[in-house]
């Protein structure tokens, strides 16, 4: 009974602040994921390029990002970026998160691009299309469609990873939870409440990506082809 009373007290006392912090979390997530998607596309092109030096640069970047804990990268990138450019905590945190997620998104795009039949690239060239034009009009739309399930998963991970910017003073959801539990001396109940907020955000992201998958009929053509092969 005391647990429920404490939960109600937290919602009553910090409800508005939690909502404001949730909006900052969503904004931070979207900004960082836009940065990550751009970085991911660039390094995915590096990976599939015939220019070896570009492939090596992409390999080093991806290895470094995947080889270190996120909190270490966040602190390193945050203080590194802040020492060169005068940026707000929010902007520097979004850049740091974007650089981190970009490595994983690069591998997602790389895999989806390489999954497209190379015959389509050759067909585009035979029609006189330059490499980048064929990539933009033929390969990338199909690659993006195939990458949606993995991108959805990575975007949800990015949402949860955004909680770590609390340690660089960004006033997002987890940062407010830290302040609230220090004031009300109810850490268990406070983190329970903030967990509910994160679960709701994850549910919204999941539903949006499920809707996008259905709208684009992700996997539909492949399933039809499999059925055709079985009956052939």
UniProtKB/TrEMBL annotation:
<dbReference type="Pfam" id="PF00528">
    <property type="entry name" value="BPD_transp_1"/>
</dbReference>
<keyword id="KW-0029">Amino-acid transport</keyword>
<keyword id="KW-0472">Membrane</keyword>
<comment type="similarity">
    <text>Belongs to the binding-protein-dependent transport system permease family.</text>
</comment>
<dbReference type="InterPro" id="IPR035906">
    <property type="entry name" value="MetI-like_sf"/>
</dbReference>
<feature type="domain" description="ABC transmembrane type-1">
    <location>
        <begin position="22"/>
        <end position="209"/>
    </location>
</feature>
<dbReference type="GO" id="GO:0022857">
    <property type="term" value="F:transmembrane transporter activity"/>
</dbReference>
<keyword id="KW-1003">Cell membrane</keyword>
<keyword id="KW-0813">Transport</keyword>
<dbReference type="InterPro" id="IPR010065">
    <property type="entry name" value="AA_ABC_transptr_permease_3TM"/>
</dbReference>
<dbReference type="GO" id="GO:0006865">
    <property type="term" value="P:amino acid transport"/>
</dbReference>
<feature type="transmembrane region" description="Helical">
    <location>
        <begin position="190"/>
        <end position="209"/>
    </location>
</feature>
<dbReference type="InterPro" id="IPR043429">
    <property type="entry name" value="ArtM/GltK/GlnP/TcyL/YhdX-like"/>
</dbReference>
<dbReference type="InterPro" id="IPR000515">
    <property type="entry name" value="MetI-like"/>
</dbReference>
<protein>
    <submittedName>
        <fullName>Cystine transporter permease</fullName>
    </submittedName>
</protein>
<keyword id="KW-1133">Transmembrane helix</keyword>
<dbReference type="GO" id="GO:0043190">
    <property type="term" value="C:ATP-binding cassette (ABC) transporter complex"/>
</dbReference>
<feature type="transmembrane region" description="Helical">
    <location>
        <begin position="60"/>
        <end position="79"/>
    </location>
</feature>
<keyword id="KW-0812">Transmembrane</keyword>
<feature type="transmembrane region" description="Helical">
    <location>
        <begin position="28"/>
        <end position="48"/>
    </location>
</feature>
